[in-house]
């Protein structure tokens, strides 16, 4: 029974580790996208102002 719990626990931890990694990557992509979008808007404002 202890072996089963350990196996199940490790599988669950592995799943959460992968999930966390995936979410971290998603957040990085989202932050990058927002940053590029903001920089793009700033560049457009500079171009329009000249």
UniProtKB/TrEMBL annotation:
It comes from the Eukaryota. This is Uncharacterized protein. The lineage of its organism: Eukaryota, Sar, Alveolata, Ciliophora, Intramacronucleata.
